[in-house]
Amino acid sequence: MPRPWRNSTHASPNYTLESAVMSLIAPPLALYVHMPWCVKKCPYCDFNSHGLRGEPPYANYVETLLADLDADRTDFGNALHGRPIVSVFFGGGTPSLFTPELIDRFLDGARARLPFDNACEITLETNPGTVEHGRFDGYLAAGVNRISFGIQSFDDDKLKRLGRIHSATEAEAAVKSAQDAGVDNINLDLMYALPEQSLPGALADVDRAVALQPTHISHYQLTLEPNTAFAAHPPPLPDDDAAWAMQEACEARLAEASYTQYEISAYARPGRQCQHNLNYWRFGDYLGIGAGAHGKMTDTTSGEVLRRWKIRHPNTYLEAGGGPSRVGGHAAVAIAELPFEYMLNALRLIDGVPASDFSDRTGLPLDRIATRLAEGRRRGWLEDDAQRLGTTSLGQRFLNDVIASFLD
Fold this sequence. Notes:
Elements: H1 17-20, E1 29-35, E2 37-38, E3 50-51, H2 58-76, E4 85-92, H3 100-113, E5 116-126, H4 135-142, E6 146-152, H5 156-161, H6 168-181, E7 186-192, H7 199-211, E8 216-221, H8 229-232, H9 240-256, E9 260-263, E10 266-268, H10 275-281, E11 285-289, E12 294-299, E13 304-310, H11 314-320, E14 327-332, H12 338-346, E15 353-354, H13 356-362, H14 370-378, E16 388-389, H15 393-397, H16 399-404
Helix pairs in contact: 2-3, 3-4, 7-9
């Protein structure tokens, strides 16, 4: 799954109420819950995940999550008042290691503390290798209404090279088990440009995913992230031209199967876009609880966009017990960084965002980035539309360059 930007710095001296709050509006509010354990750490993964060594204290962790949520409610105070939770996302790690009873315990506790929107989307990330028959009934009963499977590939050789613990057959069986249980909103994560992968191999993965009829497919390129096993010992990956050919061909195949691309790496059937990730990309707010979780909060009173992150190691997080030491850091986003942070997210959306949202979400006038917008349009990277901020097809191909142009 794609993640929000994680850097935050202390407010710069020119971060004043007058300069930052011309029209700052509190956006929708989501809840991200990090479950840090997985059966085995994958060599490409740079998420805050920890392979199992014995039986983790799952029940104690859920109680600590609720204590963390209580403390965030107190700390953010009026900034949360009257704002319903529009989506919940259990990410990891492997959240499906937690039983339905524990997920139910957390959601019951969260609902008692915060109002949930009637249409709240609740997603549980699931590893096909951890699914036990019949568990999906329990997750549904707990309130989970969207399952996201980390498939990555349907090629057993590629799965082995990626360090995955499931086979292609087990992946298909897990998806069908969820569908049989009544889960009607399912995402499949797929990767391309895998070690020694060919174009036919990438297309075969898409075809097998489509055959399962999920409502959503996340399709993203394998990259070598710092501090991973793959970064230390890189596998033989397709070159940039081959990876681009895979991306274009797979995009076309997904379009033929009626999956509409709405974000650089996300494709959905009509009405089934991931609401939680849309909130990230539209620069919405989200509470982040759990070991290593990141959050973002808009404080319309102080005129600040705040970032908060929790300490990473599960044992240290558990020891904090919801106390002040659970917070790894907390800072206002510097005013000079707001345009970059906003564009980093918004320009991932294929249709872009209304231009007025820039001021609503950052509190800055649009003319603050007028010169950069003009340059992006001159280069053919940005659509020539005064009412919307969005990339052209050329801009989507060179998205990193487009976003970097908004760095101060």
